[in-house]
Every structure is written in C-alpha cells, then in structure tokens.
Design brief:
It contains 50 helices and 64 strands. With about 1800 residues, the protein is α+β, with helices and mostly antiparallel strands. Among the domains are: about 375 residues, Lipovitellin, beta-sheet shell regions, chain A (Lipovitellin-phosvitin complex, beta-sheet shell regions, Roll), CATH 2.30.230.10; about 200 residues, Vitellinogen, superhelical (Leucine-rich Repeat Variant), CATH 1.25.10; about 150 residues, no CATH class; about 180 residues, no CATH class; about 190 residues, no CATH class; about 80 residues, no CATH class. This is Vitellogenin-related.
Length: about 1800
C-alpha cells in the first residue's frame, strides 16, 4: 500500500518538475532541417543537405525523457534557390536516402524543464551523438529559469502575466552560452495566418495560453564553447573566435522560436525552429558575405497515450551535457566516451544561494536591507508560484553569480572541467586530435586516413609528385590548381605521425636537381607548414643528416615556427633543444634563424597572452600559456639568452651579440630589461651600436607591455648626455607605446630647449605625423598628439636629421585601413641616414596584416664607405701613390704638417657594425655585418666569379602558405562549419648563368672594376600566389563537404634567355633578350577572382574545382574585352584578355589615383583588395606564333667631354642626314651641342632598340646636353627615329633643338645682386612626323625674368633689412645676406610664345584630352573665357604667361591665342613646389629641392669668412678678426676606426688619400690659401693662393703660378679637377672637383660644400659640420672652447700658447639609471647604485683607470677617485692599485674607449695580475 502511494507521489513530483511533458504520453515530432552554404546577398546558388524524420519522446517515471529517432533521411542538393536559403524545395527534387545511424533510443535527463544531460548507447559513434544533441537542443526550453543568470535585464513573470525577459546560461549543441529568453503571448491573428505554429490546436483548451518563446544566443559570454581556431593573433584583441562577432568580417547568430500551449507550469511544445547563421567576408573587407545557414524545425505531429517509456539504450553512457562532443579521430573505435557532467549554472547559483542563506541565518534579518539586489528580490516575491522559489534565491545573490558569469568569456570554467571536455595534448610524435576539421573527423567521425580509400603515405607522395610535375610547365600552375594541391598536402601532413612522415620523406628524397628533387622540395615545405610535433622531429632528423642545411634549413625552421599548431610544453622544449644542438649552432644562417624564430614563438605562446589565445586552438586543447611554460621562459630560456649574450660580449663577437640582442627583444618579456640594464647604464661595456640595437629590440616589449617599455624608453630619451642615435630610437619606440598626453606635451615643450637637433626633429616629426593619423586604431594617439602640437618648436629641420613620416588612411569604400611608417636615424657624417625603419601594414575590418617591415642600421655611414673602399684595388693604388708622392715631402701647409703643428687630437671611431632586418608577411630575416664580414667580400666574389665562368645553375623552389587562418564551430544540426583563409605561394627560379669579366673582378684579396663583362643565361621565373577563402560545412556520415568560396589567383611567368656585353671602359652596354620559346604562346600574367559553390567528397584529396559539383557564381552577361598590341610597332604581338561581371573602370581608377593624398599606398592597395566578390579573369599573353620579331637587341652608349677654355667651332646638325652608326652619331651630337660654347661640358646618351626576326623594327634615340661654367650659352639636342622593314610600320622621327642663355650670378654681394638682371632665355624647336621636311613643327621662345614687384617685396623683407645692417658693419655674406643674395636672382616671371604648324589631328586630340584632364584637376582655380580647339591642327600661335606672387606662395597662368583665353588664378604652391617651379640662373631644380629638404639657407651648406665675422657650416656666427698669420678655416680630417696595426696618426696619413685645407689671414683684406691633394692631382699637393687684385678680379696662383681667367674662360687645373673663373662683381670662383667651391672677392670668402664626405669631418674656424652647433668651437685638442678669441687663436698656425686658465671641456657621455625594479616586475622600490658618476653635484667621481703597457692594457679592478671634466685636482697622492691586464685587442680597445667616455667596466671579479702606481687626487675643485 505505502509503496504504491510512494510511487504515485514520485510520479506526481516528477510531473510537476517537468512542465512540458505529461506522464504516460508519447509526443511525436516531425523533424525537418537544412544546412546550406552560399552567398546569401550575391546569388541564390546554394549547396547543402536536407534531413527529415521523426522523434518520439516519452516521459519516464523518474522525470527524465526517453526518445527515439524514426525514419531519419537526408538528401544533398545544389541548385539555385529562387527565394533564398529558405525556399520551399519540392520533395520530388530531393533524393532522400536513409541516414546511417544506430537507431538506438536515448535518454534526456531533465531538471525543472531544462535538459542537463543525454544518455546514449556506447555503440553510438560520436558524430551521431552530436546529431542527437542537436535534436535534443530543439527541446531545450528553460522557461522556468533553471539556469537563470543574474542580469539587470531580467523581468520575470508576475501573477498571471506571462510576459518575461531573462537570461540563462544554457546548454545546446553549439555550447553552454548566455541565452536571452523572451516570453510573449502569441497574438491570435498571427496564428490564423500561420497555423503551422500550433499544429495540434485541438489540444489547446480555453484556459490555455499560446506562448511564443524566443531565444537568442550570445556566444561572446560562455562557459563552454566548442570551437577550433588558428592563426587569429592578427585580429583585434577584443574579438574572440567563435563568438557572435569578430570585428566586421565574421558574425554568428542562433535564433530559436518555439510555440508552447498551456501555461508555464504545464504546457506542450507545439513547434520549435532554430536558425543558425554564420556569415563571413571571404576577403575580410568585402560587403558581400559567404554564409552557412543551418535551420532545424520540430513540429508536433502526434500526442498519444503511452504506458511505458522507450527501452533504455544498451550499454548506456552519459555524455555530460548537450554541448558538441569532441573525440579522437585516430582511434578506430570512435564511439562515445564517458565525460564528466559539468555543473550547471543553476546548480552553482542554487549552491551559492544556500551558502548565502546559511551564512545569513546567524545575523537575523539584517540582510533584508542590503544593496540593490533586495529591491529585485522584493519585486520577485509578488510571484508566488512554487517553481520560482529557487529563482528568487538565485537573484538575491546577484553579486556572487555575476562574478562567476563575468569571467566566463575569458576563463570559462575551472581547469579540471576544462580539461575534461577538451582534447588531450598531442604527444610529440603523434598528430593532434583536432576537432571539427574535415581531415581529422570528416570520415564518419574519424580521421580520413582510417578510410580504406586513403593510404596516407601513398597519397602524400602522389600529391607531392603531382605538384612537382605541374612545376615543369609553370604557366599551367593556375589551371592545374597546383597551389590548392599544396594546401591539401599540408593538411594531409598534419594527420601523419612521425613514422609516416619520415617514411614518405625517405621515399621522396633526391639530391640531383630535376622533377624528383622538386617533389622532395614540395614535401619539405609542406612538412614545415604542417607545424606539428612529428614535423618538428622529422625536420630535426633532416638537419642532423644534412638533408637540409644552411639557408634552406633556415627557411624550413622559420616556416615551422610560424606554422606551429599546438605549441605544447613538450613541443616547445624539443624545439628549444633543437636550437641548441650542435647541428644547428655550427651553421650561421640556420643558427640565426632558429634562435630568432624560436624567440618569436616563445612570445606568441608564453609572453603575450592575447596572442597565445587568439593564435592557437585553446577552445579545443586548453590554454598553451601554461604556468610551467612561463616558468620555463623566466627560469631557463631567458637566462640562457642572457648568458649567451654575456659570452658573446666577452669574446667581442659582434655578430652573436647582435643576434642575441634581437632574440631577447623578440621574446617581448619584461625580464629582458634585466639583461640589457648593465649595458644601458654603463656598468658593462658594449659598443654604442649594440646599445642602439638594444633600444630597437624593445619593439616587442612595446607591443606586449607598453607601460613597462614607456618607463624605460622615456628615461633613455630624458638623458641629454646619451648618444643621439640612442635617444632618437627611444623616441620612436616611445611613440609606438602611445604615451600619455602629459608625456607627449612635455616632450613637445622640451623641443624648445633640447640642444640635440636630431632628437628634436624626431619628436617634432613624429608628433606632427601622429596628429594626422586616421582610423579608430590611432584615434587615441592622434588626439594626444594634437594636444601636444602647439607646444612644439617652430624650428624647421633638415631631412638629414632624424625624421618620422607616419601615415594612415581609411578607405571606406573597400573597408580597408592602411598605415605606413618611415623612421630615419640621421647621420652626422653623411647625408644618408645611419638608420632606416619602414613598416607597411593593412587592416581589413580589424584583420591586421603586416605587409613589410624593414630595418637597416649601421654604426657609421662614412665608416661603411671606408671599409668598402678598403676592398678596392683602386683605393690601395691611391694609398700607394700618396705614399710615394709624400715620401720626403716637406710641405708646411699639408694636412699632416698642420695636424702636427697644432697637435691635433681625434676621436677613434668604433669598429663598423650593421644590421638588416626584413620581414615580408610572416617570414623574418636578420643579417648582421661588421668590418671583418666586409673584408671577406673579395673572397666571396672570387668564388662566385669562378663558378659563373663555368656556368652556374640556378634551381630554387619555395612554397609558403601565408596568413593561414581557421575557425570551426558546430552548427545547430551538429555538423561542423569551417572558415578557412590561406594564401599559398610558390616562387621558382630555374636556369643557368654564365659570366666572364676581363680582368677578373676579384683576385681574392681586392676588387676592381673590369674593362668588360660578358653575361649570358637562360632563366625561368615564376611567382604564383592564390588566396583561398572558403566557408563550408561537412557531414561526417558520408564525408561530404559543402563549400561557398572565393579564390584569387595572381600568376607571373617570365621565361627568357639573354646576352649582355658591358664595355665599362668605353661606357657601352649591349643587351639581347628573347623568349625561351620565341614562336610559342606564353601566358605572362594571369589574374582571376572566382566566387563559387561546391560539394566535394573529403576523401577525394583533389582541388575543389575538380569536383563534379563545382559551380562558378557569375553573371550570365559578362563584360568582355580582348586587345592585341605591339605587333605593328615592334613585331612582337601581345594579347590582353579580360572578362568579368564587373566592368573595367580604368578611367575611374586613374581619377582616384590623381586625387589620392598618398599615391604610393593607393597603388599598393589597388590590385590587392576587393570591395566585392566579382568574377574576373585577366590574361596577358605573348603570341609567339603571330609575331614577326622574336628578339630584342638594345645598345646603350654614353659619352662626355669637358672642353678647354676656347670656344668650340660651329658644328651644324643636319637632321635629315644623321650618321647611322651609333658611335659616329654620338660624336656628331657631342660636337654639335658644344659648338660656339666656351669651356663646354657635354653629355651624350645614345640608345638603339632593335626587334629582330622575320621582320626588323629599329628605334634610335640620342640626346645631348652642353653647358659651361663661364659661358651663358647652353644647348639640348634630342632625336628619336623609328624604322622598319615591315610595310605596316610607318617611319617616324622626332627632333628637338633647344638653345638657352643663362647668365652667371654673383655670390657675395646682395646690393649688386638686387641690381643685376638675371634674365634667362631659351629657344626650342620641335619637329615630329614621318620625315623632317614634312613634319609638324613647334617653336617655343621662353623668357624668364624677375619682376619689379618681386624685387621690391624682397628688398622690404626683414632678412633684407638685416642684411643691409650687416653690410654697414662690413659683413656682406653672413647667413641672412647669403640667403637674400640667392633669392635676389630668382625668376618669378615666365613668358612662352609658341608657334606651331601641321601638328595634325592626333596631336590635337592629345592636347584636348590633356587639357580636359588638367582642367579637371585644377577646376578650383581655372577660369575659361574662351576655349575653341577645333582649328588647332592647322598653323597657329599661343602665348602663355606665368606670374608668381612676390612671396612665391601662388602663381597665375594665362593662356591666350586667337580662339583660347584661359586663366589659372591663385594656384597655391608648397615650399617644395616653389623650389621646383621658380627657376634660378645658377642653381638647378635638383639643388633647389635638395636645399629645401636639407633646410640649407642657400641650397648647399656654406661657411663664410667675412670682413669682421665668421659663420660656420652649422650656422654659428661669431665676431672674428684674423691676424696676419694663417688660421685654419677648413680642414678635412675624417674619423677612422682602427684598420691597421699602426698608430692612429700613421693610419690617418696612410688612409686619407684626399687632403683639403683652407687657410685665411688678414683683417681688412683677406688672403686665402687652399691646399688640395687627391688621386686627381696624382697625390701631389696643390697650393692655390687667393689675393686681392690691384684692380678687377682677385689674383689667383696655383703652385706660385698666376692663372688667367675671366667671365668668358676658365682656368683648368689637373684636367679640369680644379676650375677657376670669374663671376659678376669681380668675384673669383674656385671649384674643387664635385667636392666644394670657394667664392672670393678680396675681402671675404665663402666655402660651399656639395659632397657629404665633409659631414662631421671638419676642424677649423668653420666648425665641425656635425649638425650640432654646440661643438663648433672644438679646439685642436678635441675639447670645446667657449670664447671666440680663444677658438681663433687655437687654429692660428703661429699663434700664442693657450693660457693655463683657458677652459676647454671635452664631450662626455654620462650614463644614468633607466631600469627600475618596478620595470622588472620586482617588489623592491629602491636599488643601490655603485657608480658615483651617476650622482649629481660635487667635483669628484670614481672612474675605472687603465694604462697601456706594450702589447697589454691594464685596468684597475676598482674605480679610483678622479676629477670631473669641469674640475681640477687640488692635491694628488701616489697609490698602488691592483690591476687586471689583458692583451691589446678589440675587447681592450672597446673598454678603453668606454672608460674615456666616462663608463666604469666592472673588473672586481677579474684576476689581479699586479699592482701599478696611480696618481690619485686628494681633492677636486
């Protein structure tokens, strides 16, 4: 009796707890579903699967459900769906077949209406279990809030009101994620129009409600999210794979609508439909989307009585929930495995509530007044129904629940739970158990290699051989889908274990070049791209067995590091062991690559958590950023790198030092600061270049921990005593770290006070650039930079100084943002920067892509030149020539004599070091070099030359798969959906090259320029790339995959053979080029974009396009174009074919380029990114069989001549009878151009291009230019002719004869210049046509003048007024005067008179189109009064006048003729445009633009020795009264690093083959002496004396011989190396080669340098020319004076001895503390410092000392007291000091140099060899 009552009670309780299911009842639901792939908004073509069947559900007595599938069928269908994805498809069009499932019943475990687990038979395979979970998910209706989440949006039902909105953490097949419920009564009118929503309406009583339940999943908040992703670290950090939205390119949504009838206590699920959409932009930026749509519908078809539940499943197995099940696809038994059932959200809430209630019971009712949650609880108390009692308790504990929910998106559940549902880490020798991927679970839930159809070794080998075969016909690569085959091979390799991979390798390996070797290369690259543990072990064996070595092995290792899929701790340690192995360390290229790429991998896996979680499949395997891994990095790996760096420093191994610096930097770990700190702070010594590299190596730390990097970088920047290049690098890194606005403002303000122009220029240019950045990514930085802009200095800086050019642009039309940054670290010793950093990147809807990163740095540009010069035979000959010439020489004004007389001291440069870093996409290359490296160049070239003489075969094939990304998630039907993006590329170069030089370029020791070089070769170059982007899903039961995809092919093929003769002695080049197959058709360029839908069997292992169900999505009516060109003009025919469903809009594209603010970047972007998914096919083909010429022969000839003083005789040119032979024609032009010109300099270039074959096509082009330093006449001659043996190619000739007259101008007197007339004229005669007599003729008379308005404007400027004041004081050429003197000769008016005749209709059309384009570009400024060009092809005249505004800020143009009246008004000009358009009689456009860029006041740097003052090259002006003794004004003394084992003075005398000295003396009248020695003077010293003339021009003597010169003829010395001529105003100009010139008028002289070798290489009264005006008063002793009088006296050859009170301060580097314990992440807030020089105040410092003792150098083991540079010792004592002695080598010299600069090397732990007596100060003051 009681047992029956108990049973009834339990049944009643179970029924009450399951509101949707009535006991003893069977519910039968019709199942219908579809999953499709297609372009939802581009076309209606879809491919997919349909399913149908029945599900019978019977409640059990225990409150759970039993269920069974019946008649489950599926049909595959691919077609055009008229009404989109939800088009009704007639069953007759669907060929249904039975779904192969076990037909076992299964159980659904319920709690309060929510399903929390599923029980199936152990015989059920995993794929079927996931299908059952998808069906069960349709019945997951948690209307009673069993898994309620706390949320402010929760609105629960009250009373009889069923409206509700609330959130749950709910399980379905797609994950345990936040789900928003909306409950609403269904309006009756909706039911009338959609009766299918309530199919069993007869079950609805009058008391029942019809309730609509709407669910929407928020995948961004989850506890368990089944997904697989890879390669997404370039995505924005706030985008997580598999969630609702990844930026703008991917979206995922799941929407459920269910209709229930009854009430919330007891109801029936009438229907339920779930629609799951995954939308992706295949190109990341396209507006059109590829989609996978999965829809599953349950409709109640029958409700009937049932006395019992379905039988229990045999061997029941709980699956732990409804979430998609992972499995090991490599196990033959793929049935379900036991899983731990995860605690539900509701369980956790209830447990939390119970805990809260327990804790509050002891504190009575005080909790009723707590916080905001109590108000929510009060509102819920109104709802009295019993099923919500638990719900109220959970809401009352909102804070506890919220804390667990808020962490769900980042650390979704406990680690134990996470490990239970995720896959096991793969063993190192086994493939990973990757879920959701077709090759791993696509064959009935197994890996495909378990299929009988697949033999993994056979198929991998076959694929590699197929690809190799395709490579033999390179132009067929796109058609053969070779690159897609390569990606299939990679996927196959990822499923292979170590044994399988090695066996395939052994079968394919071949040494001899050919098709077999190509197959091995293909497999080699595929294994590297596989990125698995077996791949690592396989590559390790290849390296050990020397199957791959050197650069080849380096590339393989780099590819492996970039492709790692599952970087487990075991994998990382095995990789680390490989980098340390002897086989790797013994090979330089391989060692570098392994060290650096592994450091990058460490950063991606262990250091950057965001990158680690985005790059690797953490949803599948758990986090790889493990605690053990992080401990390995900090406790072992970083210590290893630091130790290696220290060892390299001790060995002074520059290469290893730089590599380990870069490796430490690549890790991006803050602990690298610990390794760098002693070098930053001067406690340990390395070269300044190595310290610079340490700063640059902080780039990755800036990315990972910008706040830590900012702290260190700012302190480096703040130290004004730090080396300028290091400060500049710190500025660049600091800006990338996005400093706070206050820091930027402080830096901007400090540019007004900082004395270092390099640093100021870097700060200013960066802030100005950053203020203009576009895009959300840069919004914060741009805002901060704009706030700092007003605080910047107004100083304009030369491009020679450090500069940053940062640009970003957002192109909304194609959803692309790009940015490029060019940062330079300026040189003091060259116009070229010593450092250059360039980066170009793109962002496509948040998908970032670093296209290129390039860094090139060198310790000194000038020293690089020195080292390279030392490899030249010519340099050694010059040194030997000088040695012979100076043997026994006693010249008192030679450079050597002056150095000895003034006892000059110099700073020895550090040895040359350099580094180049290049990253193209994912591949990074790092090269270092030093003086020893470059010393090996002759030997390397000799070896190469020997091989080229015999014929060097080239065979290079490299496959890469760039930018690979994968995201895979389950659909609501349980089928995995995958988005894959990859870019396979092959680069192949095949051929043979021969070269012979006469004489040899290298003898093994030195290089020389040969007289001639013969080259010949055959070469095939192939670059083929394919973008494969697809969204697909697959059905494991029949291993079919349904695609929607978009492919882009870019293919370039160049097969040529060529011969070349280089006659370097006579400056002639002859080249012959022809196709390898001249009479065959060759596809040169192919470009295509192909959108498609397809279905394919996964087991086919073939490209998708080879499937029978591959369909291109394209319009029926394509835009087509086919053009052939070239044959009539060259005999070689080319064809251009184009077809697309988008029209070719070339005109629009050109318009966009013209209006682009950044043309270079726009050009780079244009072909790369698509704003739609159009079908396009473009081909450029060489049609050999249609060509009448197949070979191109090119001859180039250059000749130049510098004539003497005499005027050249008249040499008329007869355009109708020019010499046909090239040499004679060039000579004819040479003489004709020079005729009637005094001292003419003439250059001629002549080119012949001949197309040879059955017919010949001949082109000639000759151009000559003649001018003179003294004669105002100049001439340009040009001639172009076309002739052919073909009747179809008409002859054509063009002639140009331009005669100009340009006066010389004075250089030293503004008063003269403003009265001088600099008028310039030019007469141009142009003809073109079939022959000279009947050709079109155009005559142009041009006149350039200066307007009176311009003269008046200039004369009233502040500079002109200041100049007049200077003139009154006797100084006519100080900087202000020099500037206005040059500006006084600018020509601001241009008048053109054009006469033309017989120009023809074609020219008329060209002019008309040109004018249309120009008027479009200048539409804002152009005024058209009359434009009628209809009669232009006849005879006519045209006048054009160009007038610049007096301040040159804008110009006006008028064009006037009989039928044309056009005006361009107030066209603005930038500073650069002013230099281009406003002519100067003397300074060319090149000089003017260069002067503007380098901010030179008079185009070139100059120094003036004026009457009473001197202005230096660095623009310091000081009063100067010279004595009657010679003073050194300009002395060329470049610095050198140690090259020879001799003293620095001897080395300088040996290596410095050029000497340039300028001396001056006299007060009122100046005398100038110039001494020159150079190879052009045969190493003899030439003395040039300049003295005031009695009347007229100054007297000029060369080696005591007076020279004759005037304004019409120049004196030529040493074959024109030295030229002397007169300028207007009786000024003498002395030009010394292309190096510098001096203008002299008897009272002053101006020295102007035009060669950058003088940068930072001068001493004397003109300063140091190092861009630092604070060093201009550097005395001969290499210290800096403050008083001009003392400075002048120090350079007077017979001057007084310096006063003992004279204060001369040497430059000194001061190290400061830059790395704090906080920067290292340590808790200590202070750290002791031992170096007293880092403390401010006082005169005493402690300094390590050294003494040289023969071949040894001894260093004090402890710092000794010493006086600072500004103090002196009061008393000294002798002290015996222990020292450590070492051999005098590079290490010793480095330490000595650093000690000289104030550093303190630590020798306290070194052995003491002996004691030495030192004089130590007792007191300093």
């Amino acid at each position: 009796m009681w047992s029956k009552i108990l049973v009834c009670l339990l049944v009643g309780l179970a029924a009450a707890s399951q509101p949707a299911w009535k006991p003893n009842t069977e519910y039968v639901y019709e199942i219908s579903g579809r999953t499709l792939s297609g372009f939802d908004d581009k076309s209606n073509d879809y491919s997919g699967i349909f399913i149908q069947g029945e599900l019978s559900v019977r409640p059990q007595n225990d409150g759970h459900l039993s269920a069974k599938l019946r008649n489950l069928e599926y049909a595959e269908h691919q077609d055009e769906f008229d009404d989109g994805w939800d088009t009704d498809i007639d069953d007759s069009d669907l060929k249904y077949q039975k779904m192969p499932y076990t037909q076992q019943p299964f159980q659904l475990l319920m709690k309060n209406g929510a399903i929390y687990d599923i029980v199936v038979s152990k015989q059920v395979p995993t794929w079927e279990a996931n299908l059952l979970k998808s069906f069960a998910s349709q019945l997951q209706l948690d209307v009673n809030g069993e898994n309620l989440m706390s949320s402010r949006y929760n609105q629960l039902p009250e009373g009889d009101d069923i409206d509700a909105v609330f959130k749950t953490m709910e399980e379905t097949v797609t994950g345990r994620v936040e789900t928003m419920y909306e409950l609403n009564p269904l309006p009756e009118h909706i039911l009338q129009s959609h009766p299918e929503l309530v199919p069993m309406d007869h079950l609805v009583t009058d008391k029942d409600d019809i309730i609509e339940v709407v669910k929407h999943k928020n995948y961004s908040n989850y506890e368990q999210l089944p997904a697989y992703h890879y390669g997404l670290s370039n995505m924005d950090s706030d985008s997580e794979p598999g969630t609702n939205q990844m930026n703008e390119y991917m979206a995922r949504s799941t929407f459920t609508r269910a209709i229930i009838t009854g009430d919330l206590k007891q109801h029936i699920i009438q229907s339920s439909i779930t629609v799951n959409k995954i939308a992706v932009s295949p190109t990341f930026n396209s507006e059109q989307k590829a989609m996978v749509i999965s829809a599953l519908n349950f409709t109640l078809s029958e409700v009937k009585s049932s006395s019992s539940a379905h039988p229990n499943p045999s061997n029941p197995q709980r699956l732990g929930g409804l979430v998609y099940e992972y499995n090991n696809g490599f196990e033959a038994d793929n049935n379900v495995q036991p899983r731990k059932q995860l605690e539900t959200y509701g369980d956790r809430m209830e447990r939390s509530s119970a805990s809260s209630a327990s804790s509050s019971s002891s504190s009575s009712s005080s909790s009723s007044s707590s916080s905001s949650s109590s108000s929510e609880e009060d509102s819920q108390k109104q709802y009295k129904k019993s099923q919500y009692n638990r719900l109220r308790r959970s809401v009352a504990n909102e804070q506890q629940a919220a804390s667990s929910s808020s962490s769900s998106s980042s650390s979704s559940s406990s680690s134990s739970s996470e490990e239970d549902w995720q896959q096991d880490e793969p063993k190192l020798n086994e493939p990973s158990q990757s879920p959701l991927l077709p090759f791993f679970v696509g064959y009935r839930g197994n890996a495909i290699k378990l299929s009988d159809k697949i033999d993994i070794q056979r198929d991998a080998k076959k694929l590699a051989q197929e690809i190799a075969k395709d490579l033999q016909e390179p132009e067929d690569i796109p058609d053969e889908q070779t690159l897609e085959k390569y990606t299939i091979l990679i996927q196959l390799a990822r499923t292979m274990d170590e044994k399988e991979m090695k066996q395939v390798a052994s079968q394919l390996y071949a040494k001899e070049e050919g098709e077999k070797r190509d197959a091995w290369k293909v497999y080699r690259d595929a294994v590297a791209e596989a990125g698995t543990g077996p791949a690592l072990l396989c590559i390790q064996e290849w390296i050990q067995n020397k199957k791959i070595e050197g650069e080849e092995a380096a590339q393989v290792i780099a590819a492996l590091a970039e492709s790692v899929r599952e970087p487990t701790d075991a994998f990382m340690k095995a990789f680390f062991a490989l980098t340390k192995s002897q086989a790797v360390e013994s090979q330089t290229f391989l060692n570098n690559s392994a060290i650096l790429c592994y450091a990058n991998l460490v950063r991606n896996v262990y250091v950057s958590r965001d990158d680690s979680e985005a790059e690797y499949p953490v949803n599948a395997f758990g986090k790889f950023n493990s605690k053990e891994g992080r401990q390995f990095v900090e406790g072992e790996y970083l210590e290893h790198l630091e130790k290696k760096l220290q060892q390299a420093v001790q060995r002074a191994d520059s290469h290893q030092i730089l590599v380990y610096i870069r490796a430490l930097g690549n890790t991006g770990h803050r602990k690298i600061l610990k390794a760098f700190r002693p070098y930053f702070e001067g406690d340990k010594q390395v070269s300044q270049f190595q310290r610079l590299q340490m700063v640059i190596a902080l780039d990755k730390l800036v990315d990972v921990k910008p706040q830590v990097a900012r702290s260190v970088l700012y302190k480096i920047y703040q130290n004004p005593s730090e080396e300028e290049e290091i400060r500049v690098a710190a500025v660049y890194q600091l800006m990338r770290a996005v400093p706070p606005a206050s820091m930027l403002q402080r830096m901007a303000e400090y540019t007004n006070y900082d004395n270092d122009d390099h640093v100021n220029a870097a700060v200013k240019s960066w802030i100005e650039s950053a203020a203009d950045l576009e895009g959300e990514e840069y919004e914060e930085l741009a805002s901060k930079a704009q706030a700092a802009l007003p605080l910047l200095t107004e100083e304009l800086y030369s491009i020679q100084l450090s500069q940053a050019y940062i640009r970003s642009r957002v192109v909304d039309e194609i959803n692309v943002m790009y940015s490029h940054a060019l940062e330079t670290i300026g040189s003091d010793d060259s116009y070229y920067p010593q450092g250059l950093l360039y980066a170009f990147s793109t962002s496509l809807n948040g998908a970032d892509n670093d296209v290129v990163l390039a860094e090139a740095l060198v310790s000194s540009v000038d020293e690089l030149t020195n080292v390279l010069d030392q490899q030249l035979k010519e340099t050694h000959e010059d040194e030997q020539q000088k040695k012979q010439a100076t043997s026994g020489e006693n010249k008192q004004y030679s450079s050597k004599s002056i150095i000895e007389k003034l006892k000059m001291q110099f700073e020895e440069r550090e040895q040359l070091e350099g580094a180049i870093r290049l990253s193209l996409g994912e591949a990074e290359h790092y090269f270092t070099f030093n003086n020893h490296t470059l010393d090996q160049i002759p030997e390397v070239i000799k070896d190469l030359e020997n091989r080229l003489k015999k014929g060097k075969k080239i065979s290079y094939t490299k496959f890469v798969n760039k930018h690979e990304s994968t995201i895979a998630v389950p659909t609501v039907m349980g089928f995995p959906a995958i988005f894959q993006y990859e870019m396979p590329t092959v680069i192949r170069v095949e051929g043979e090259i021969k070269m012979h030089a006469q004489p040899d370029i290298s003898n093994g020791d030195l290089l020389q320029v040969p007289d001639s070089v013969h080259l010949e070769g055959e070469i095939e170059v192939v670059v083929s790339s394919k973008v494969q982007s697809s969204l697909s899903f697959f059905t494991p039961h029949n291993h079919q995959q349904h695609y929607v995809g978009y492919d882009k092919n870019i293919h370039v093929y160049i097969p040529i053979k060529s011969k070349a003769e280089l006659d370097l002695q006579n400056e002639k080049i002859s080249v012959e080029i022809e196709p390898l197959e001249p009479k065959e058709e060759t596809d040169i360029v192919h470009y295509s974009t192909v959108p498609y839908v397809a279905q394919q069997d996964i087991l086919d292992l073939e490209p998708v396009s080879e499937s029978d169900k591959y369909e291109i999505v394209q319009d029926d009516d394509l835009d087509e174009m086919e053009v052939t060109f070239g044959k009539h003009h060259t005999g070689m025919e080319f064809s251009f074919e184009y077809e697309s469903d988008e029209p070719l809009q070339l005109r629009r594209w050109l318009h966009e380029q013209f209006h682009s603010e950044d043309l270079i970047s726009t050009l780079l972007l244009s072909p790369a990114y698509d704003d739609d998914l159009a079908y396009t096919n473009f081909n450029l083909t060489y049609n050999g069989h249609q060509s009448s010429a197949h070979r191109v022969h090119i001859n180039l000839n250059y000749e130049s001549e510098e004539y003497d003083e005499k005027e050249r005789p008249e040499k008329p040119i007869n355009w109708s009878q020019l010499p046909q032979e090239q040499d004679q024609r060039a000579k004819h032009f040479l003489e004709a151009a020079a005729s009637k010109i005094h001292s003419a300099d003439v250059d001629v270039i002549d080119a012949e291009v001949e197309f040879k074959g059955d017919e010949k096509y001949h082109y000639y082009a000759t151009a000559a230019y003649a001018n003179s330093p003294v004669d105002k006449k100049s001439r340009v001659l040009a001639y172009v002719e076309r002739s052919s043996s073909s009747s179809q190619a008409k002859p054509y000739k063009v002639t140009l004869d331009s005669r100009g007259e340009t006066p010389n101008t004075n250089g030293l007197d503004y008063e003269f210049a403003r009265k001088f007339d600099p008028k310039t004229t030019n007469e141009i005669r142009l003809t073109y046509g079939r022959d000279y007599q009947n050709s079109a003729k155009v005559n142009i008379k041009a006149e350039l003048t200066q307007s009176d308005e311009r003269k008046q404007y200039l004369d009233h400027t502040a500079d002109a007024q200041q100049c007049k004041r200077d003139i009154q004081e006797g100084n006519r050429q100080l900087p202000v005067c020099a500037n206005v003197t040059a500006e006084a000769n600018l020509l601001d008016q241009v008048s053109l008179k054009v006469e033309y005749s017989q120009i023809g209709e074609r020219t008329h059309e060209y002019v008309r189109h040109g004018y249309q384009l120009l008027s479009h570009l200048l539409y804002e400024y152009i005024e058209e009064n009359e434009v009628d060009m209809s009669g232009m092809h006849e005879r006519g005249q045209l006048e054009v006048n160009i007038d610049f505004e007096p301040d040159l800020s804008s110009l006006n143009i008028t064009v006037d003729s009989k039928s044309i009246d056009i005006q361009v008004v107030d066209l603005p000009l930038s500073e650069i445009e002013q230099q281009i358009y406003v002519a100067h009689p003397v300074f060319s456009v090149y000089e003017r633009v260069l002067g503007e860029l380098y901010q030179n006041q008079v185009y070139w740097p100059f120094c003036t020795i004026d009457k009473h003052a001197i202005s230096t090259f660095d623009n310091v002006t000081y009063d100067a009264e010279l004595s009657q003794d010679w003073s050194v004004v300009f002395h060329y003394v470049p610095d050198y690093a140690k090259h020879h084992d001799v003293s620095p003075y001897q080395q300088r005398h040996q290596m410095q083959v050029e000497e340039h000295v300028v001396l001056a003396r006299g007060k009122q009248h100046k005398e100038i002496k110039i001494t020159v020695r150079a190879p052009e003077t045969d190493a003899k010293l030439i003395e040039i004396d300049l003295k005031p003339g009695q009347s007229g021009a100054p007297k000029v003597s060369v080696n005591q011989k007076e020279q004759k010169y005037d304004q019409q003829q120049a004196a030529h010395i040493q074959d024109g190396y030295i030229q002397i001529y007169e300028l207007p105003n009786q000024e003498a100009k002395i030009e010394i080669g292309d190096d510098y010139y001096v203008i002299y008028d008897g009272e002053r002289a101006k020295i102007t340098v035009v060669d950058d070798k003088f940068n930072d290489a001068l001493r004397g009264l003109c300063g140091t020319f190092d861009n630092d005006d604070s060093t201009d008063f550097t005395a001969p002793e290499n210290c800096i004076l403050s008083e001009p009088e003392e400075f002048i006296e120090s350079y007077t050859l017979n001057g007084k001895q310096p006063s003992p009170d004279r204060k001369c301060v040497p430059e000194e580097q001061r190290y400061v503390s830059v790395v704090s314990p906080r920067d290292l992440g340590e808790r200590s807030q202070s750290e002791s410092r031992q170096s007293h020089q880092k403390q401010s105040g006082g005169c005493t410092k402690h300094q390590t000392q050294y003494q040289e003792d023969g071949r040894q150098v001894c260093f004090s083991t402890h710092p000794l007291p010493a006086c600072k540079s500004s103090c002196r010792a009061k008393n000294t004592i002798s002290k015996s000091v222990p020292v450590h002695c070492i051999e005098k080598n590079n290490v010793a010299e480095l330490w000595m140099k650093q000690i000289d600069k104030g550093a303190n090397p630590d020798f306290s732990l070194k052995a003491v060899h002996r004691n030495i007596q030192y004089e130590v100060p007792q007191h300093c003051e």
